[in-house]
């Protein structure tokens, strides 16, 4: 169980405390003893309500103050009084501000090990991605070290980023009060997670969309234009087309035969539907169905991208020539010419270059939804 003290806003600890709290604030406490009924667990797609017994829920909010070009910090500050009022009676609320890239991963791991009931990403898809990666360590789910066998931490989200694309699949808006309501209700559902590896090494997890080549370059460039809001992704894509070469690739689905895919512009592996600030790139992806949707764009030029942009946004691009889609449990992707120039990204995080294998972990995380 997490360590706590009486009701104060900013608590200088005198006892050993989890490091994710060291520079941060415990906002509410009154921790009573006893256990807390969490969920039924099990396979993909199940939904279970949290019911509290005598112990308060331990919620750790991982806040990226730099999200949405600094807007996340401002929104979070405004949200805190409401959050305290709405959740403070039933929950211990810990906030932890990230200090830079990857910090959210460490905060999450430590929070789960210390027995948090939920770790809630506050920010955009990049922050959510890091929190998701914090649920795993060396290829396995991170365990609560308090010996509570039936206790697993849930993932939560207050979408306050630029794109906040994962939230779109569920129809969630960037309204933080709506997100607080979801957390107050505490309904959990199992969601799938994608995992990417390079010959069994270098594991990375994604909950939204992993992709490669043009769209991955676009994501990299978009990060430099966040001040333009969602337009940053279109600007990033156009910049990525400069000097871009479509490449011949081969793919292998579910361990079957290798298949040739000439002149690939981008290959996107969706656990959820949206990326790039609202482009419905993998419109058939469902985060709890045990599959990933793979969409391949071939032989696209920059002007095709412009002409078909509206179809990308509304998800009707699958009917366009040179766009194909399939549902997979795993997909391996290699480049034929080995130019070494095919970028791979995972929920927007740059991961290096091909080859890579993508596969689904069905129902890997409980999500507050
Ligand atoms: N304190 C920090 N300073 C600078 N960068 C940070 C800090 N904390 C986290 N980051 C990085 O900022 C990246 C982007 O943040 P985030 O995804 O929350 O916002 P966004 O990019 O505006 O939203 P979206 O990804 O939804 O478009 C994260 O992937 C993380 O690596």
TrEMBL record:
SMART domains: DAGKc (SM00046)
Gene Ontology BP term (one): phytosphingosine metabolic process
Keywords linked to the UniProt accession: ATP-binding, Kinase, Nucleotide-binding, Transferase
Domain DAGKc, chain residue ranges per copy: 54-200
Cellular component GO terms held in the UniProt record: membrane; mitochondrion
Ranges annotated as spanning the membrane: none
Stated name of the protein: DAGKc domain-containing protein
PANTHER family: SPHINGOSINE KINASE, SPHINGOSINE KINASE RELATED PROTEIN
InterPro entries: ATP-NAD_kinase_N, Diacylglycerol/lipid_kinase, Diacylglycerol_kinase_cat_dom, Lipid_Phosphate_FormReg, NAD/diacylglycerol_kinase_sf, YegS/DAGK_C
GO MF terms held by the record: ATP binding; kinase activity
NCBIfam families tied to this protein: YegS/Rv2252/BmrU family lipid kinase
């Amino acid at each position: 169980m997490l360590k706590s003290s009486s009701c104060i806003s900013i608590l200088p600890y005198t006892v050993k405390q989890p490091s994710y709290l060291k520079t941060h604030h415990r906002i509410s406490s009154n921790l009573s003893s006893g256990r807390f009924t969490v969920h039924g667990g099990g396979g993909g797609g199940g939904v279970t309500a949290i019911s509290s017994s005598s112990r308060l829920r331990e919620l750790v909010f991982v806040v990226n103050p730099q999200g949405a070009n600094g807007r996340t910090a401002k929104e979070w500050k405004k949200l805190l009084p409401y959050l305290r009022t709405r959740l403070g009676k039933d929950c211990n609320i810990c906030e932890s501000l990230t200090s830079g890239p990857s910090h959210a991963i460490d905060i999450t791991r430590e929070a789960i090990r210390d027995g948090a009931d939920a770790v809630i990403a506050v920010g955009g898809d990049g922050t959510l991605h890091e929190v998701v990666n914090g649920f795993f360590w060396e290829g396995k789910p991170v365990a609560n070290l308090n010996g509570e066998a039936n206790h697993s931490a849930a993932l939560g989200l207050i979408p306050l980023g630029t794109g906040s694309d994962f939230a779109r699949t569920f129809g969630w808006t960037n309204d933080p009060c709506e997100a607080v309501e979801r957390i107050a209700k505490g309904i959990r559902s199992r969601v799938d997670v994608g995992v990417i590896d390079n010959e069994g090494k270098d594991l990375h997890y994604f909950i939204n969309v992993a992709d490669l080549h043009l769209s991955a370059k676009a994501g990299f460039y978009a990060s430099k234009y966040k001040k333009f809001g969602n337009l940053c992704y279109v600007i990033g894509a156009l910049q990525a087309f400069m000097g871009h070469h479509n490449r011949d690739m081969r793919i292998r689905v579910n361990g079957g035969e290798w298949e040739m895919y000439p002149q690939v512009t981008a290959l996107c592996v969706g656990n959820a539907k949206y990326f790039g600030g609202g482009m419905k790139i993998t419109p058939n992806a469902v985060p709890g169905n045990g599959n990933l949707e793979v969409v391949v764009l071939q032989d696209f030029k920059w002007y095709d991208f412009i002409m078909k942009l509206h179809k990308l946004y509304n998800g009707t691009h699958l009917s366009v020539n040179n766009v194909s889609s399939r549902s997979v449990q795993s997909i391996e992707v290699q480049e034929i010419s080995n130019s070494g120039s095919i970028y791979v990204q995972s929920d927007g995080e740059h991961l290096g270059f091909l080859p890579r294998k993508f596969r689904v972990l069905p129902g890997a995380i409980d999500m507050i939804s």
